[in-house]
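Help wanted!
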Amino acid sequence: MLDSLALAVSVPLIGALLVTAVPGRVQGLGLLAALATLATVGLVTAEVWQQGSLRSDLGGWGAPLGISLAADGLSAALLAMAALVALAVSVYASGYFSRGETETHFWPLWLLLWAALNGLLLAADLFNLYVTLELLGLTAAALGALTGTRAAVEASLRYLLVGLLGSLAYLLGVALLYTAYGTLDMALLGAAVRPEPIAGSALVLMTAGLALKAALFPMHFWLPPAHANAPAPVSAALSALVVKAAFYLMLRLWLDVFAPLVTPWAAGLMGLLGALAVFWGSWRALRAERLKLMAAYSTVAQIGYLCLFLPVLTALPAGDAREDLLVALLLMALTHGFAKAGLFLAAGLVQRSAGHDRIDDLGGTAQHMPATTFSIGLAGIALIGLPPSGSFVGKWILMRSVIESGQWWWIPVILVGTLLAAAYVFRVLSRAFNLEPTPRRFVTQARTEVPALLLALTSAAVLGLAARPLWRLLGFEGGL
Amino acid sequence: MMTSLLYGGAGVILFALGLWAFLVYEPLLRKLIALNIMGSGVFHLLIAIAERGALAPDPVPHAMVLTGIVVAVSATALALAMGRRLEDDDDAR
Amino acid sequence: MRRAGTLVIGALVGLLALWLLWVLRDVLVPTPRLAELALQELPNTGVSNPVTGVLLAYRAYDTLLELAVLLAALLGIWSLGAASPGFQPAGTVLRGMVKLVVPLLILTGGYLLWVGGHAPGGAFQAGALLGAAGVVLRLAGDARAGLPPVPVQRRLAVAGAATFVLVGLATMAFGTGFLSYPPAWAKWLILTIETAATLAIGVTLAAAYVGGQPVPRSGEDGPL
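Answered by r_m:
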């Protein structure tokens, strides 16, 4: 009996244990574990594709007493995105870290982070989610400090503390829910929750904790320094995957567990915070002096976009329009995951080649690396939301739904955010495309440049043109 | 009944005290102690839940507290190690 | 200004506490809970201590991930650089006490590990005692806290999670499902997992206390 859900968590975990125990061969074993993890995730996605949803009772105890793992279209799609991004990051890291100390430290923590990510996306139990959140937070903070500079350690320490605060708020919410309903299983809770003060308090505490971890405005202050000072492959994973995992959990709580409690006002507040995040994040990205800092602030803005979907989702009745909007939300999240990972990986190469990543002094540097510059451009297309990218489709459907649900006031937010994104992307590109002789060679180090390029290409061209399977994966009829 | 309210209420108050100290005080050590006090508050509440009425105590919250303690120890250890690293940097300068 | 901020935060946090107390005022009566189900299924877990039953049977997966959290903390600490030199060798009195206390801690740890099956105790309590033995040794001047050389430390630190996940995969391969112990084996599988976990927790806690990877490339012993 092959339990693909349990495998998707245990394979990266075994990989992490192996590379810890045998530090002499981290790179080979690590890459092998990455490939094996991708295979298990492929298995999960294929099974979800065929069966719609999966559930596995670990230990055979079943829902209220034991812990279950579950997957549906939403988690499978994010799982697959995470696996592809993580594989690219792994290949990149194998070329980026020179053999030695850092590499020995990177691989075990990285594979543990991947296991935590898969565990979080597949969890069906609120307390189990707390443990995965902590595993994710600890590994992410430790990885962020790997550069060893003072700024990196300081930022990671703050990240760790903020993450702990968020986890404790979440845990208090879980305790309240167990007090009131006597179960920790998300499906059972979803059926039991009634609109009453204790459930409302739990929702507020858990949302606040997760918003802190997802860096939702105004709780984003820890993100830019932490993401900008981490080693490039780590920044890519933190920005593309870790932040999104917290948002995914928030979405699950709002849409599945606490659905009867969510009022238009509460959802509107989340939308408002999202709108402020779009403005503030994009503005700071435009003013950022360093490429990686720009990418980090852009993440703040992108999380804002995802929150904009909440009020509209709450307002729309079940039906085609709502299903389209859910796909759009997923599409935005996936596109941003690929694009931001590609951008950070490319930025790491620029930084390494130039010795710095000050945007104003990038002239020529980037042009010596045509493939990398191209990656930045492609990722930029996806961040702005220009046509073939997935975020173009996502924003399009969002605007349509905003009008359908009569909440027109979100439209200026989307437009201004898009314009600001165009401004900060073109600001980098205009520096990179200075007049310099064109180099002969397109790719200089395949191991690091190709993963970045592929990620950016996926975000800019593949997702938007091939979005249709997402409807099918989520079990919906429609499509574009 | 009264006991569990007392114990659970103490947990809530510990959580709030810890939260306040975390937000107000700057030094790392105080923040870490504050976080641990918040954690203890949640554990108090869980133990109070386990001990409701005259029934046998509920082992599930007990197990959650044990798991939570190990997680809190791990996180505190990592944070302390980072803090020590920063201090070493200061000394080296 | 700062004082005003402190007051505002204090007032807000106080309001939160009052609200939560009000919310909790009448739910702390016997309401739905898992205790009855947990106690009723206990004979099927292979242990008779309900808390161990929850930790290693019903919610074993949580415990597996928790061992991973512990490992992550240690890996993070190791990545931050070398350990500090440690303390002066202890004087006669302290040394005499350490000689007495450390074996006692290890013995008590072993007892707690065994007793966890039917009474309060278990891998975490036992592991904590082993860790404490390491702390005492380091305080008494042993820079390596009584731990074996680094490669062995690494293997011991992953032993708990590795045993756990391998048992899970083995039960999956034999067709009962991930971490579903066959009833006849349950007791011994749990004991095996707990033993490995105790060692791993003890080593991890002691190594975390040492703080930093003792990588004496040249010397044979830890930095003293």
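OP: Thanks! One thing I noticed: Chain A has a mean pLDDT of 91.
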